[in-house]
Amino acid sequence: MFGYNKVADNTFPNMVPFLTGKYVEELPGSENLKSKPFDEYDIIWKHYKKSGYVTMFAEDSTSGAMFNYLRYGFMKQPTDHYFRPFALEREKQSSFWSNNGFCFGNRMEPAIELQYTYDFMKVYKDKPYFILTFITRISHDDMNDAGRGDFEYLRFLEKSFSQDLLNNTILLFFSDHGIRFGSFRKTYVGRLEERLPAMYVLPPEWFRDEFPTLWNNLKANSYRLTTQFDIYETLQDILEIEKAAEHSKSNEIDYRNLKRISLFKKIPLNRSCETARIKPHWCTCHVFTSVTVNDNIVINIANYVVFYINNMTSNSSELCVRLKLQKIKGAEISVMNDKVLSYLGQGEQTHKDYRIVIQTHPGEGLFECSVRYYCGNKQLSLMGEISRINRYGNQSDCIHDNLLRKYCYCNK
């Protein structure tokens, strides 16, 4: 999918739309997510379980797991087969780890998760199943390390195809987001890579003949703007694929303003980040041009952002140092052209959207954010989250709030 755009910063807020069809803040009781387990939430694998599927969930990471990083995880086993108990026990076997943590015993770590997945597929070959295998550690800290897993993924796919294990399965090979930190992330291409994660959708060969409309829509949508919300809707369609095929023939449904559109339905060519509910800070459709960092508006924005960060950490002021603006590293502006203004019925532009990168002190933190400047009253408004684009390491070890860890420099 060439237009697959993430909708949030890191793993959890991107995978929640993928698995529930909702933003984190749209979940019931979202304000208490850090202090309650996830057993009662309506995760997609429950729909599959209810429809008679055998379910499996496997992650390599334990401390940084999707539902466990600074959160409570599950009180009860969430799926029929659950890899976490083995992964936790594996972490304790320090003498078995080698090659900077890439190998356990004489095997690459991803090979173990992939073998577990393969064995599950083989055992349940004649039954419907739902699998979520989430492997992150091999590429999380350095995207160049991803190549270490090439052979393991190739071997898994070759074995699965040779054993005819994917003949009745739709395979999604995906990432939740790109590289969020480091020198590459500071580049223009790095910014796009972070916001445009990988998503490959592979139905079985017979699918295109059995469901030609769904296949053609899927191909067309590979060049349309899509998100994790659409993947959730696609997973719902897979549960009732015959029904989805019937609906795909109808022209009566207007998809233009829907947040969630299945990849098996025709996504509008002119879909925008606004209609797809992608917040401006993550949108890759906007065109920006450079602006001088000495511009008065840019300087005001930079100070506004530092004030905003300090305000977020103010309730933890005994733990976090008050940050100061050290340097404005770069600034860009997105301006609508006259044709767009005419189309919107506006004689002149009412606002300007800026994207800036600042460095703060102490800690040398690099932050990127999108801010809207209203031309009339000269007010500023933050558009989405503030991204931390360099590593904070142990700078924020004193605080355990998942959001504030990106911004807090501990008062040591």
From TrEMBL:
Signal peptide: none annotated. GO terms for cellular component: extracellular space. InterPro entries: Alkaline_phosphatase_core_sf, DUF229. Pfam families: DUF229. This is XP_036371083.1uncharacterized protein LOC115226507.
